[in-house]
Write a structure and sequence with these properties.
single chain; 239 residues; mainly alpha
């Protein structure tokens, strides 16, 4: 990881890798969508159960991407890792998109199952707070003109937001909530039938590959942007 902190080495390593990730993401998404639509309806939820194949991966990636953002912020703030700030910045937008998708699909799933679009349930509220942390991170970076100060302030906020991740994960265990407990990763194994488990795992792998493709592309773009800004600043000084 520290070897890839060098921008030149990072660009050489990720150059051929990124197109493959886009291809893997496309194949997995196609397979996941096909499996999701060919899976049978649930005996209680009917075809509404198919929302799970979009909602669960989006919710999982929303939390995992914020963990990546927080860890990158830590390295950027404490160790001045050369690419850590770029990695944190690049993770914010896709992470916010995954979290927003989880909130939207959760509401669409909750309305027929619970009879309401939204409740101030511990899980729902903590995921909403997670989404607000994403928005706050991006807003803070945009609000400060000095990029160095903006990066430092956003890194602090990114670290603070890590406190919310255990709450998101364990909220259904710590409090009596309307949201169902974990059915995929739990003691004793998954409670999902194979006809639902395999489409779900495929979609989760597709979302993960898609995020990695987007993340690496965004980091590479950020490196190029900073190089251009540096060249412009140098040219202005010489002029």
């Amino acid at each position: 990881m520290f070897g890839l902190a060098n921008p030149e080495r990072f660009m050489r390593f990720t150059g051929p890798l990124t197109p493959w990730l886009w291809g893997v993401a496309a194949v997995l998404l196609a397979a996941g969508i096909w499996l999701s639509f060919t899976a049978p309806g649930d005996y209680q939820q009917g075809d509404t159960v198919r929302i799970m194949f979009v909602h669960v991966p989006a919710a999982s990636l929303g939390t995992m991407v914020y963990a990546a953002l927080g860890i990158s912020s830590f390295f950027a703030l404490v160790f001045r890792h050369p690419l850590a700030d770029a990695a944190a910045r690049a993770a914010a937008l896709p992470g916010a998109a995954f979290t927003a998708l989880a909130l939207i699909t959760g509401s669409l799933w909750g309305q027929p199952m619970w009879g309401t679009w939204w409740v101030w349930d511990a899980r729902l509220t903590s995921v909403l707070v997670l989404f607000l942390f994403y928005l706050g991170y991006m807003a803070l970076r945009s609000a400060i003109d000095d990029e160095t100060k903006a990066a430092r302030a956003a890194a602090v906020l990114g670290l603070v937001g890590l406190i919310n991740l255990p709450i998101v994960k364990f909220s259904v265990d710590w409090w009596n909530t309307l949201h169902q407990p974990a059915s995929l990763l739990r003691a004793g194994g998954s409670s999902l039938a194979p006809v639902f488990l395999w489409p779900l795992l495929t979609m989760m792998a597709a979302y993960a590959a898609l995020f990695l493709a987007v993340w690496l592309t965004a980091i590479r773009t950020e490196i190029v942007r900073r190089r251009v800004m540096s060249l412009r600043a140098r040219a202005a000084l010489e002029a």
